[in-house]
Amino acid sequence: MPETNTEKISPKPTMLWSLACMLGNVVFIAILLFMSAMVFSLVKGRITGTPPSIAGYQMYIVLSGSMGPTFEAGSVVFVRPLDPIQLEAGDIITYRGNDGSETLTTHRVMEVVSDGTLSFVTKGDANDVVDGSTVPAANIVGRVHYSVPYLGHLMAFTQTKKGLVLLVIAPGLLIILFELKNLFSLATAMEEEKKAKANNEPAV
After folding, report:
1. Phi-psi bin for 46: left (phi > 0), alpha (psi -120 to 50), beta?
2. Has residue 144 got a pLDDT over 80?
3. Which domains does the chain have, with CATH numbers?
4. Phi-psi region at 49: left, alpha or beta (left = phi > 0; alpha = psi -120 to 50)
5. Residues near 185 by beta carbon (within 8 Å), at least 6 away in sequence
6. Which pTM does this prediction carry?
7. Of the candidates 66, 13, 1, the residue with the CA atom closest to the CA atom of residue 189
């Protein structure tokens, strides 16, 4: 009796599942790239003594809740330097204090004062009254464009030796594991294709 060659049919993933996997991979890679860029920026900042920055945005950790609920302590604000003359009421700015220190504050502009010299009346969103003194244009660091909650805790951790090592090594290991997974999947697919071709060959 002649033998009948049969091929085991394995269930193929649906298009929706394939798209979900592809989207997951894209998000995973994006997160790794962002983490790598952030770690590189932090390392560079520690070496040069400058604020960490990504794509022209300086990153600062929010230490108090004076701007809640817009952003809370532990958030990171992304600040882009600009000419202070471009600022308007309603903008959120980061600026140095009037005491000559490098302590930074991030509050909202309530009023632009132009009485011979440019300055700004500011207030924290969580505060009931405006700040006690105006901010000279020379003290402006930049305007806040974005904020990411909780990222400040991660950045603070990276500023420790343990955190720096973990966040430099971990992304590298994840990238290696991701590539190994892709290679394994490719090898498995090639092996299954070889078996399928062998099973489809006519028996002699």
Report:
1. alpha
2. yes
3. 62-149 (2.10.109.10)
4. left
5. none
6. 0.69
7. 13
